[in-house]
Design brief:
heterodimer; A: about 260 residues; mainly alpha; MetI-like fold; 2 domains; 10 helices; globular; B: about 260 residues; alpha/beta; Rossmann fold; 6-stranded mixed beta sheet; 3-stranded antiparallel beta sheet; 9 strands
Chain lengths: ~260, ~260
Amino acid sequence: MKKQVITGLNSLIVLGSLLLIWRLLIWALAIPKFMLPTPWAVAEAATERSSSLLASVRITGEAAACGLFASVIVGVLIALIFAQWRWIRRMFYPYTILLQTVPIIAIAPLILMWLGPGIVSVMVIAFIMCLAPIIANTTQGLISVEHNLIDLFLMHNAKPAEILWKLRLPHAIPSFFTGVRIASGLSVIGAIIGELFAGSTRVGEGGLGYAIQYASSQVETDYLFALVFAASALGFAFFFIIMFLEWYFLHNWHESARPAEND
Amino acid sequence: MSHDRGVPHIEFRGVGKRYGAARPVLEDIDIIVRKGEFVSIIGPSGCGKSTILKLVAGLIPVTSGTVLVDGMTPVNAREIVSFIFQDPTLLPWRTVAHNIGLALELDHSPRDARPRRIEALLELVGLKDVERSYPRQLSGGMKMRVSIARALASKPRILLMDEPFAALDEMSRDRLNEELLRLREEHKWTVLFVTHSVAEAVFLSDRIIVLAPFPGRVATEIDVSLPFPRDTELRASSALDDSIAVVSKALRGAHAL
């Protein structure tokens, strides 16, 4: 407990130092406001325009959450198929890696062309970003079951469905969560990239990506900074929620989900 | 000697096994294990000890010859066979009680009878206090007890044990050896036990089969004439040492074959 307090204090000290360096840099190098606003100006912009800032966070958050959720459903289904049929896995697995390496920034305009601007395109872009890590990690978890355990089930004449349900699925939960954790950060990035291209259906309203673009075109650097911090906070919130779920489901039995006790 | 009379429970007739085009792992194996017998298989690594157990379990097919278990093919005989692996093979997401219950679930045993059965098995292997613990909270010896309890849950007639105590410290190993014999007095299983340890094989077995490697074949069989029940007292006796010496010599001979 005491150790955690100290760790928390240390993080706060780092934050304070960074803000101080930021402020000192502006002063020492005489950086103009439109290039780099002071921390105080950023905080002011954020509070003054808090309602539109929060609206942007909500819009992006919803799109990212929907994309992430859809990719969890689709990704797990694909992973199940990959795990059950080796030949399908051999055939299609390389393409899931392709999914990961293709730059989303290059497909985003295509998706907008096909689906039109709006939240659906943004969700789809977030979905595509999230899919690969979920498929890869969940598949790995499903197929990496120790051979003796399979033999144990076979000794009881277990059916494939029983092996899947009682052995492969629970065994895959830790790696599934690893995939979702990676995807949670990507979902926010994907949604913001989508919004950069998708713009807004209503003037002056839109997600973080749209607002970032708008603020930069208006040289509202202080608000732009506020948006960037809000985007990071949103990504962090996603990550934190997934970490919590992971802990909740795994802390009883899995080492990775438990706090280190001896260091 | 008991095995001169009893009914064959496990029978290998001219069994050969090879994986793909590689050189054979087992060649021309003839083994008979009679009902109620405790037979250990020892031999240098590469002699196919574990392969023999997997053949009895029907987890892999023979390349030539026949394996009969209780007069049936190994796959058909699985209902009366339990396999105990070298590692405890517990499911880390299940508590001790639920790990034991897994065997009952997979055997589709009546649901309402399960809790009492699990209770009895926990009692049997001395794990009543940790029934709600997860495997990661247990010592190696306790995990092995859970594994044994789970194997016994199916009420097997035949136990196949693949170096089950190899990873344990000597004290836990000796204790579990003695408990295994005590349980066997009661349940009269037929046991086929693979081990690296001559002392363990001698302490446990009615008979020891010594295998020679490359390809695996039976070098010799040795009857262990020490009287049952065997316990801590026997461990200190010179009769045990004599038997160990005989088997060690045979094992060295098998190396040279």
